[in-house]
Amino acid sequence: MVADRSEITVPPLNDALPLVGRSTELSALSALVDAAIAGQARAALIRGPAGIGKTRLVNAVVEAAAGTPATVLRTTCYEVTSGVGYGAVRALFAPLGLGGDRAGGPSGGDRDAGGRAHLLDAGAKWALPALLPEAQVPDSGGRDASYPVLHGLYWLAVNVMSTGPLVIVVDDVHWCDERTLRWLDFLLRRADGLPLLVLLAQRTGTAGPNSAVLAEILAQPSCEILDVRPLAERDVADLAALVLRAPVDPEFQRCCAEVTAGNPLLLTRLLGELSWEGVRPTAAGVRRAAEVGRNALAASVLPRLAGQPDHVQAVARAAAVLGGAVDQVGTDLLAALAGVPPQLATSAVRALRQLALIAPGQIDFEHDALRSLVLAEHSPDEVERLRVRAARLLNDAGRPAEEVANQLLLLSQPPQPWMLGVLRDAALRAEHRGAPEAAVRYLSRVLDASQDPAEQTRARVELARPLALTDPFAALGHLRQALADLPDVRARVPVVVRFALTALATQRALEAVGLLTAALDEFPTGPDSQPGDQDLRALLEATLVLVGSDEKSTIGTVREWLRRLPPPAGNSPAERQILGMTAVLSAAGCSPASEVVELANRTLRAGTANPSGWAAASAALALQLADEVTPALAAFDRLLVDSREQAAAWMHCVLLASRGVLQYGIGDIAEAAADAQTAVHIAEQEIWRRSATMPFIVLAYTLVERDDPDRAEAALARVDRPRFDEFVWEWHYFLHVNARLRWLRGDLDGALEHLLRCQRSLAEAEITNPVFVPWWVDAACIHAQQGHPERAVELVDQARDLARQWGTPRGEGLGLLAAGVLSGGARAVDLLEQAVEVLARSPARLDHAHAHYRLGRALLDVDDARGARRQFRQAVDLAARCGSQAISRVASNQLVAAGGRLHREIRTTVDTLTGAEHRVAALAAGGASNREIAEALFVTVRTVEVHLTNVYRKLGVTRRTELPAVLGNTSTTGAHSRSDDESGFREGGWRRA
Prior knowledge:
It is a single chain. By secondary structure, this protein is mainly alpha-helical. The protein has 48 helices and seven strands. The strands form two sheets. It has a five-stranded parallel beta sheet, sandwiched between helices. The chain has a two-stranded antiparallel ribbon with strand order 6-7. Among the domains are: 5-14 and 233-302; 22-227, Rossmann fold (3-Layer(aba) Sandwich); 682-700 and 712-909, Tetratricopeptide repeat domain (Serine Threonine Protein Phosphatase 5, Tetratricopeptide repeat); 911-967, Arc Repressor Mutant, subunit A (Orthogonal Bundle). Helix 23 (472-485) packs antiparallel against helix 24 (489-505), helix 31 packs antiparallel against helix 32 and helix 33 (669-684) crosses helix 45.
């Protein structure tokens, strides 16, 4: 006779039984643990159906790691928390105590009782929004916090790994929130050389909401997939013998294996039920095993639960509804949801533990399948009512809005009015955490529930903000509808601005400019103005000049608007943006350099405290074109420090490339290459890599100067931006460097074709300044080389007129250089001598070297070999200082042809360093640690280690303390020469600038 199930105490069979039949899986996981301990980052997805034993395998790995210095961070995900931004991250790091009241703000925190606050040092401080309780999440100030938080969590993990390996375990990863998955992907992409193991357990047959992001993780080379197999019949027999404590009949063994499909959870539940019924593992027990086994899980749970008192069943339902949050909310709220007194709820939890439904020491179910089974016994309407009640109770108890919103997201019915505020609050918190996907989920429910047209418009505008970061095209659709529903122009201004900035990311500048100009035309002026109108109008104008300056189709509108707009005072971020863009557009349009410098200086004097830094960056570019190199470099340096401190990777990458253009223009090839390579490193590991074109272009420029056409071509091949030729600023550089690459390879016709395309493109963009991209100088040289100088005379004359209008030494010197190349005889010598003299007063050292080389050629043509040799040596000297092997090579060849002699090639090992290696070596020589260098350059510690290894090998040193002396060596690189008739020239007399 079967005992009364309501009185049976059920042991936790799964954890009590040994792990059988898993030697293959354990061996594979053991190898991953060994690799991680050895500093080879690994990840594994352990997948299989519910109950197959994934968690037990993970437990085995955790137990093995307990005997090592490894830190194990572990969490289980739940459907009810799958929409919470960084929910799994908070659970993972909770044991470290970093997100409590004493954690502090983004600038750092007090040392907690466990002495772990140091884990949030330096770049790791940006992890705090993901770790803090909802009430402490700092306001992001309107900035996109998504990258800084990812960046901070990466460095937090690195800090944890400074004391030993890190094992991250995420069970039921199919319910993991998207932000945590994106962080794991971010971490693994940068984990080369780190002692890291990431274990993910996934239930097959369950499509979680973020499977696409999980697929990105699985695509990484460091990630393996481990499919957990059903137990073999011999393993079934072993388990049956352990549970039933008797020899197992082969027929009974086969029956158990067949009805459970070798699933350990179903098998242990079946065997437990048979044990409680007194069934023996003989042929006689086969029939009962088949009857129970058809639904082993339900048969082992539901009858026992049905035999329990009502209050136990009510608590089981409530715990199932609360899901993974039940352990956080505690017994009192569980009792309220179940509708029973707290004392009865406590006794019910004990009873559920005795039935092996609730895990020991917890309130949550032992297995997700048990929770699903309990809920499946109730109608959808009943579960819905329980979820609504749970949400209200959580809200009334003051639980975080995100926690309440989790329940609301699972409702099939539209949210009630009180719920909308909760969803909005949860969305705002998610945005501050840098979790736009979660905010989109919350605000989508708000929009779905909004009935009033005004509420719908408000919801669309709110939703478009985070949606712009995840699906900008969808965000534009919502903003279009909102604009159509907003009759008042003042109310439309922030919406138009948001539309325009979102359109900038989606290459829809033409539509955005149309909306901006329409709003400006409609905006009230004169007696109809109200307080605050000036600021709103300035915001529209600033957005117009920023967005409209991006594409050729809209640049004319912006120029026309600026012609009618007097330069503002620069008292607000919007006014500073207008000033900065006015400066750079005036420079591109070849207004007098003195006027441009005044505008740029006003921009910088007014301050750079605007959200993006574009005002100061624009001013720096204008100063660069005007030969004001020192203030331009200072501005770029300040902006780079700020972007690094703010963990703004995109802005940092753009600024590095911009500073690289400046350094290339002044002939500092090594520094330009270092900036370009660092920017390339950043871009290549980010999702916006296709939008980053200038890092690759600047790198190609430096490689052409270094006489390395193959690598230059490879760099340009990585430029892959859609509609690239329709943009204003970068496309011309791309054409110009392609032309120089073809010229270097001897393809003169191909080079000219690209230069003429560059000319047409600049005209389409209304860029007339001849020093912006000096394509015309190259075209003049190539035409002269082909023996047709007359074909370039007109374009050079036009460029020289514009250069005079621009009024800088570089512009004037380039004009003289090009005119001299197209001339012959004494006139050529005269023009090129003037070019050398004028360019000596400019910061353009590379152009100065080129002028010396061309003057040498002209002197040879008039039979002045001695004078030619002097100019060729000067060209070699300057080119070597700049790091231009290309000019140095051709000048050296001409020197020999003119009767001069090269004593020997004098090179230092320093000049064998790549730009990135030189940058790393310089920082290391200055005392920076590998960690500090990595943070400064937005690269990984492993990348720094690789660069330093190459540096040590190339420089012949063994430790960083030797670097200052080696890097400070005044020896030089490149070809160097001296002839007998040049006694005043000291061998080794030029030094690296």
